[in-house]
Design brief:
InterPro entries: MFS, MFS_dom, MFS_trans_sf, MFS_Transporters. One of its GO terms (cellular component) is plasma membrane. This is MFS transporter. This protein has 379 residues and is an all-alpha fold. The chain has a single domain, classed as MFS general substrate transporter like domains (Growth Hormone, Chain: A, Up-down Bundle), CATH 1.20.1250.20. It is built from 14 helices and no strands. Helix 5 runs antiparallel to helix 6. The longest helix has 30 residues. The chain starts with a helix and ends in an 11-residue tail after the last helix.
Length: 379
């Protein structure tokens, strides 16, 4: 996915010669269909097949990207990209759901499992974003061909080694959930619904703002006379620093704040503050500072939100609960580039950055209202 998001706005506006609003609309449809895929992925994971869900998502993604590789003219690009969004949504929820299943079976390592999965996914996105600028400037064909190879490789890995996803150990907790009671919260139905609404709303807001880095920020930096390579390199900094920042932040905040919602709140305030550095950024070091502050905040926020959701899910609906986070995150990614481009067109980039700061603060307040008790000590 790190190859897909950063170049979309530039490819549509510069290569296909469409307006910025059109580029935002394309990303809106792409992300809305990813949202549909997220819902389908959760349902298929809970009701059909863990392995089959991933095979369907990866296979359809590879086919869509292969079509774009050989036909990236308008409107074919838009059609195949939208189809790919649906497929990637299925695969993404499938991975999150399997992570939740692993966390259920290893409750004492639940937070660590989500953190490591997030780190692996984010490093992949960041590495892709780093190289895509260099590759895109040299070959549009290889920009999309390499994406196809990545998803095809995932498909073959699951096809070859994915039997473990349907193993008796993976299914055992369906009849006997021995691990699920201790670390997870027993809430009433109204309390669960309230928590879901708060987490879903916060996820929508968070990703709506964060998605600006994957879309409109590329154009902002180009307008300020920075190169695409410099923009892409910020994602390398993001990936490299995560290896150091995430373990430190998890240990530091975990020592002082026992509740996941409190740690997430701190992360959100840091993420929002990072956007306050952008309106006055005149040299590259200021963009690096903004990215590092964003990285510190996201290293806490993104892995802990699905972990928080998993605390009040049941075994039979872990995939569905994870799909709530992924769906509203996808909706935020869908709306973010579009409303961001509209706000930039009607006002300015500066207005956009201040609006994001305010909305991140509101998301932090919402997460703070989630009902959560500290997990019991299992040592």
């Amino acid at each position: 996915m790190g190859f897909i998001l950063p170049v979309n706005t530039i490819f549509i506006t510069k290569n296909l010669r469409k307006s910025m609003v059109t580029a935002g609309f394309v990303l809106l449809i792409y992300s809305l269909l990813m949202l549909v895929g997220n819902f389908l992925g959760g349902q298929l994971f809970d009701r059909w097949s863990h392995r089959g869900t991933l095979l369907l998502g990866y296979g359809l993604s590879a086919a869509s990207l292969c079509a774009i590789t050989f036909n990236h003219t308008w409107p074919s690009y838009f059609i195949f990209l939208a189809t790919g969004g649906l497929a990637m949504g299925i695969a993404y929820t499938g991975i999150n759901s399997y992570t939740a299943l692993l966390a259920e079976q290893s409750p004492r390592k639940s937070q660590t499992i989500f953190s490591r999965m997030y780190l692996a996914a984010n490093v992949g996105i960041a590495v892709g974003s780093t190289f895509v600028g260099w590759i895109f400037q040299r070959s549009v064909f290889w920009t999309f061909a390499l994406q196809t190879i990545c998803f095809l490789s995932c498909f073959l890995i699951v096809l070859r080694l994915g039997a473990i996803l349907e193993s008796p150990a993976a299914k055992a907790t369906a009849d006997q959930p021995p691990f699920s009671s201790a670390p997870f919260l027993k809430l009433t139905r109204p309390q669960r619904i309230r928590n879901l609404i708060l987490v879903a709303s916060a996820s929508l807001i968070i990703w709506s703002g964060y998605s600006q880095w994957d879309s409109n920020l590329s154009l902002y930096m180009l307008q300020n006379h920075f190169s695409l390579a410099q923009y892409s390199f910020l994602f390398s900094i993001n990936a490299a620093s995560l290896f150091i920042i995430q373990p430190l932040m998890n240990r530091l905040l975990g020592h002082f704040l026992t509740q996941l919602k409190s740690q997430i709140t701190v992360g959100l305030l840091l993420m929002g503050s990072s956007f306050l550095l952008l309106p006055t950024a005149t040299n590259y070091s200021q963009y690096i500072g903004s990215m590092l502050l964003l990285t510190i905040g996201e290293s806490v926020t993104f892995p802990l939100i699905p972990a928080l959701l998993n605390k009040f899910a049941q075994h039979e609906n872990r995939g569905t609960y994870q799909s709530f986070y992924v769906i509203f995150s996808s909706l935020g990614r869908a709306l973010g580039p579009y409303w961001g481009s509209l706000l930039i067109t009607k006002a300015s980039f500066t207005t956009l950055f201040y609006v994001i700061w305010v909305t991140m603060f509101l998301a932090a307040w919402g997460i703070g209202q989630v009902r959560e008790k500290p997990a019991p000590d299992l040592n």
